[in-house]
Amino acid sequence: MTESTPTTEFLRQGTEPVVDADIAPVIKPSVVHVPSSLVSLVAAERQRSGRSNGQVLIDAIEAGHDHLVKLHNESNSIGGRLFTARTAKPQLPVAQPLSPLNIRLYEQDYEVLDRLVTELGAGSRSRLATLALTFYLDSPT
Q1: pLDDT by residue (tens digit) across 78-124?
Q2: Beta bridge partners of 20
Q3: Which of 10, 36, 81, 113 has its CA 20 to 30 A from that of 136?
């Protein structure tokens, strides 16, 4: 039996864009900033698999969702008595210079990303992308 969380419930609802025969799904560009070492690993995965940066990112988040939830659950809680309680953001592997990674996703995909950022305490799309891609590409960043 799998545990049901708000994230899994949202993902079960389906995020496939509604496709009308006359209307193509809306794809929007964006940029996430990830450690420079990940950019070359994403490029290698893109070359190997024939997928786009956005598709690699989606696969990384899907494949690493349980790991990301575990990171969030193991994060330290700060405050609670004098200050409002909050969860510390999951730690990034090692601080490095960041580089932009261009992605193109369906509009609905950005809604899922933003919800995951909030639910997992990642802080930003870039942090979420870094955590997911690092785990997915098994990168020692």
Answers
A1: 777 888 877 666 666 666 889 999 999 999 999 999 999 999 888 89
A2: 23
A3: 10
Cα dist. 7→3, 26, 111, 133, 140 in Å? 11, 23, 12, 19, 27
Name the residue among 9, 18, 12 with its Cα closest to residue 106: 18
**Alpha-carbon separation of residue 141 from 13, 36, 39, 42, 84 (angstroms):** 34, 9, 11, 13, 32
Rounded Cα gap, residues 33 and 124, in angstroms: 10
Query: Which of the 8 DSSP states describes residue 4?
Result: P
32 pairs with which residues across the strands?
101
Cβ atoms of 104 and 93 within 8 Å: the answer is no
